[in-house]
Amino acid sequence: MSRIGLTKDVLLQSAMEIVDAEGAQHLTLKALAYKFNVQPPSLYNYFGSVAELHTSLMLYGWKLLENQVMRAAVGKTKDDAIKSMCSAYLEFSMKHTGMFDIMQSYNQHNTQEAKAATSGLISTLRQVLSAYNLSAENEVHIIRIFRSFLQGYVYLIKNDSFGKSVSVQDSFNVAVDVLLNGLTALKG
Predict the structure, then answer these.
(1) b vs e for 116-144, b when ≥16 Cβ sit within 10 Å of the residue's Cβ?
(2) How many domains, the chain?
(3) Tens digit of pLDDT per residue, the chain (188 long)?
(4) Which terminus of the chain, N or C, has fewer Cβ atoms within 10 Å?
(5) The domain that contains 145 carries what CATH number?
(6) Is residue 2 a part of any domain in this protein?
(7) pTM of structure
């Protein structure tokens, strides 16, 4: 029997708060149970193990990011949609740095659900890219380039790897513009 108000989504939201504040290494069933004043074994009704909690949190994070990126693209096309999507990705990743780290483990899980974790985000990007009339091969290249750029940029910011002489946001905007110029050159 679940405690009133305690759902898997409520637990995952709280787990995200733990990893964002303290890091993934601090997410345990005991730490999560403590936040709700319940005994850790009661969380086995929701997660069979700590590993299952981490997997569920990873999937939850990708769904949240997918929703934020999709909302950013609504009503926009081509360059405007991609700029908004990239900004939404960066905003989410910087707001949820611990969650972002957990999300990067999606390809280490051996389930269909985990392997498909990024499919919604990729599908949204494919829809926007369809307006550019790219070849199938070039579309794959562009998706890989944008994913590499976004994930790498987030990690460089998180690790304070940029100097302070120029705004990191300005550099991000310039980089997105450069990528979009390259995208335009690849048409067909």
Answers:
(1) ebbebbeebbeebbeebebeeebbeebbe
(2) 1
(3) 455 678 999 999 999 999 999 998 999 999 999 999 999 999 999 999 998 999 999 999 999 999 999 999 999 999 999 999 999 999 999 999 999 999 987 666 667 887 788 888 999 999 999 999 999 999 999 999 999 999 999 999 988 898 788 899 999 999 999 999 998 888 65
(4) N
(5) 1.10.357.10
(6) no
(7) 0.90
